[in-house]
Structures are given as C-alpha cells and as structure tokens.
Amino acid sequence: MTVAAAPAIVCRELWKIFGPTPERVYRALVADPAARIPEHEGHVVAVRGVSFEVRRGETFVVMGLSGSGKSTLVRCLSRLAEPTGGAVLIDGEDVLRLSEAGLRELRRRKVSMVFQNFGLFPHRRVIDNVAYGLEVRGMARPERLLRASEMIQLVGLAGWEQHLPRQLSGGMQQRVGLARALAVDPEILLYDEPFSALDPLIRREMQDELLRLQRALHKTSVFITHDFAEALKIGDRIAIMRDGRLVQLGTPEELVLHPADEYVGAFVKDAPRARVLTAASIMTSCAPMAHVPGQPSVLAQTRLEELLPVMAEHAEPVAVLDSAGATIGHLERGAVLRALCQA
User: Fold this and answer.
1) CA nearest neighbour of 6 among 56, 62, 75, 65
2) Which of 333, 324, 236 is nearest to 279 (CA)?
3) CATH topology of domain 275-341
4) Are 188 and 111 in contact (CB under 8 A)?
5) Domain-wise residue ranges, the chain
6) Which of 16, 150, 297, 331 pairs as cysteine with 319 (C-beta 3.0–4.6 A)?
C-alpha cells in the first residue's frame, strides 16, 4: 500500500484583517461570521477562514478578481503579511509560531518569492541580483557567482550577467527575478502575479518558461493570478477566491465541468474546453480490464483537442487506458462533441 506524501503547505482557517484592532474583529467574526459590530469600522477583512493543502511538487494556483484577497493570502504563507488568526504549516511546522530567526531561515532556505514588480536592485548587475540570496546566507563570492551563473543560464539569460536591470526588457527582468528565487534552491516558490505587468506575447513566453522549469525542477509552487486562462495553463489545481473566501478548489477539469456557483461559472464560461478536458473526465467508466488488441484506444490524460482526430477515424467506441495499459472506460464520439459544445 502506497502512503501519500505529507503536503508541503497546509493552511487552516487562515484570517488576515487590516485595521487598528484586528484581533478584536477576528474574535468577533470567528464567534459569529455574520456579526455587525462597531469595531468593523476602519477594518478590511482580506482573508476569511481559508483552508487548503498544497501537495509536494504541484503548481497550486490561487485566482480571483482584484480585492479577492489572493495576494494577501500568498504573503501570509511566509508572513510578509502577518496573519491575524489560523495556522500555516510548512513541512509540518507552524510558520506563525516561528521566531524572527526561524522566519529568516525559512525565507533564506526553504521559501522564495517572485514579485509582480520584479523587485530587482537597480544598481546591481544581473549576476549580483541573482546571487543576492546566497550573499545573505554568507556563501563565499566565487561559489555564489558560480551558482548565479548556472541559474542565469537555466532561465535563458546567458550573456547578460554584467548588465544592469534598466538595460533589460520587462520579460528579461522577470527572468532575473526567477533566477534569483531559484538560486537558493528553495523547496517552495511563491509567485505574486509575476507576469501581469508584461505584454501578452512576453507573458505567454514566461508561462512557457515556467512550465519548462517546473518539468525540470518539480518545485512546489503557489501562483497568484487574476487571469483564468493563465491559471488553466499552468495550474495542477486552482483555488478561486471571492471577498477573502475560497469559493471553489479543484483541477481545471473539475472547475470547467462543475462550477460551484455563478461567480466561478463566469470565469470558466469562455475556457478553451478542448485544451482543458481530458478523456478521463468525459468517458464512461468501467472496472479496469485488459485492453483488447486492435481496439482503438487513447490514454486517460489525452486532451479533447487531441481526441478529435482519433474519434473522426473510428465510429465505434474508443477504449480509455490508464498508465498501466488497462482499459478503465470507453468514449463515444457524441460524448466528445457534447463536451465541446456545452455552455
């Protein structure tokens, strides 16, 4: 029996309230979520009792409209924003109970963040920007510059080591920020809308770069965005927030097929279903059985856009196979067409 790995991040009933007396408002709202008390005046409840787990090696996307609380949430994970209540566990350790020294160690070695505005030092060359986290650690200059050079090459900026940030395009600057985060070899990467300031073409290139790096490095990542297309492209699972609350959490397929409410439905309405849905999500399931030789088949993770040519060639049902080659379901042409045309 395979034992599932413990999650990398666990959030339990996390709250963040801004204002003069956040703890008082927190206690009142935990006791009565519908409470209307004078102390609410002058306070903003940015995150309201959010709970979720992030699996090791997955890209976990948090999305929502402006003001939904998503950026505040990601900043609470490493206490760049101090949570008002709840718990954040990283590798089983409660971040809210860490001392200042323990928190510095967490940020230096285990968790790195990539910001929307790049956050580069304008007076430092690219290689020194990338090596900054290693410098803070106390690593010797030759070693940190060697590591920084490796990361610069990894993100496709070889030859730009001696340039200043102002000499780089926005996309290149964001690559520097990504290289800096990777240089310390963190277990967890936090992305706060890192591509939102980029032009659409550069943004797509950076999304592809992130996917390439994830395939190579398998980092645990929490990625914040307001763009559902971006969430679908890079996320293993997506959490949708509204007014500080987590409205729905699921895979791209689950959100597209089963939106929890009209708010989620508005996001998924124009989703490219052919690129999101897989054979497994629309097949007629059956108990695993040996595949019949000669019967047309597709793998369970095959996207609908890849299914269409297969279904056009075969009038009979197509077998859906798991990774071991066993038949786990069947798929008819009509099911594919209905999935594509469903509003």
Assistant:
1) 56
2) 333
3) CBS-domain (3.10.580)
4) yes
5) 54-82+97-271, 275-341
6) 297
Q: Which has the closest alpha carbon to 307: 320, 316, 298, 315?
A: 298
Burial class (CB in 10 A: 0-12, 13-18, 19+), 292: exposed
User: What are the pLDDT digits (tens) for 171-200?
Assistant: 999 999 999 999 999 999 999 999 988 888
Show the beta-strand stretches assigned E in the chain.
9-18, 44-54, 59-63, 85-90, 93-94, 111-114, 188-192, 220-225, 237-242, 245-250, 284-289, 297-299, 318-321, 327-331
298 Ramachandran zone, left/alpha/beta (phi>0; psi -120 to 50): beta
Q: Does the pLDDT at position 281 exceed 70?
A: yes
Which residues have CB under 8 Å from 300's CB, separation 6+? 278, 279, 280, 283, 320, 321, 322, 323, 328, 329
Answer whether 0.85 is exceeded by the pTM.
yes
Q: Specify the CATH architecture of the domain 54-82+97-271.
A: 3-Layer(aba) Sandwich (3.40)
- Count of residues making up the chain: 343
- Number of Cβ within 10 Å of residue 311's Cβ equals 20
